[in-house]
């Protein structure tokens, strides 16, 4: 009989691995598919609200990190001349820029949060850092907070909504330009509406209008915010459009590279899976062969036992011809059948 190990193929002697599929990094795959326009499950999009995809946790963390970075940028800018540039009597705010970028990249909700951060920083300026804000604070602190906070919050939310709507209308290239311009326009427009609505009839605003030589509401608005409003719109139009487009392109490129890496890993895992299936089939064939060999060994064993019984029977026929159950040679040596040899009994009798 052959050695059982020799009858098992080499592949079958290796431990069997479980049959598995080819898993893919769903969070990366889902975000990359979202950039390509494929239907996916909840995940974070490049320039909008969270979409549907595999790893919601990682998408939310990425969303919160970017939002926190933009809020930190607003805080840092508000504490430096970059945020509130004062040139003589003209005050220009560039904090609309991170709000617009965040609204484009992260969606209307993030735009509202960033706008709220901008509004709080604007209200803080009223405590001695802005002469105009300090004058409004002295008249009515609550109205001053409303004028500083809510127009900026509404501006951030509407900016994100405008970009989302333009993208839905497949105006991808124009969406960045239009949204960047409208963000600064919303900021100036909502601020002036709130200011005139809450402080328009105060003595301070009436005296300010007379000092500016404005005879109509339109001339007063232009004299008050015309120059800085136009400068803010120009800066946001140029820098907001460029920065948001660059960041979106960079993120889309990184997601595409991550998608290619994921697809390559999936292909490698698929090949390994096929190899495991092949090894499993080889092991299964070797197991069947081993079982067949074991059955053959069992049959040979039974045949040998039968042959052994036959040989015993034939041997007894030759050695016990009279069929009394004792060998013939024993009958001749113990004729009286007492179980003792006759020769030994004779010697014993002579001695006695």
Describe the structure.
With 352 residues, this protein is mainly α. Helices cover 74% and strands 4% of the residues. It has twelve helices and four strands. It has helices at 10-13, 26-36, 56-78, 96-106, 108-124, 131-139, 141-168, 172-199, 203-211, 217-319, 328-333, 342-351; strands spanning 42-44, 50-52, 84-87, 90-93. The strands form two sheets. The protein has a two-stranded antiparallel sheet with strand order 1-2. A hairpin with a 2-residue loop joins β3 (84-87) and β4 (90-93). α4 (96-106) packs across α8, α5 runs antiparallel to α7 (141-168) and α8 crosses α10. The longest helix is centred in the C-terminal third of the chain and has 103 residues, at 217-319.
Features:
352 residues; mainly alpha; two-stranded antiparallel sheet; 12 helices; disordered N terminus
Question: Could you give a short description of this structure?
Answer:
The chain has 352 residues and is mainly alpha-helical. The protein has helices spanning 10-13, 26-36, 56-78, 96-106, 108-124, 131-139, 141-168, 172-199, 203-211, 217-319, 328-333, 342-351, and strands at residues 42-44, 50-52, 84-87, 90-93.
Annotate the secondary structure layout.
Blueprint: H1 10-13, H2 26-36, E1 42-44, E2 50-52, H3 56-78, E3 84-87, E4 90-93, H4 96-106, H5 108-124, H6 131-139, H7 141-168, H8 172-199, H9 203-211, H10 217-319, H11 328-333, H12 342-351
Antiparallel strand pairs: 1-2, 3-4
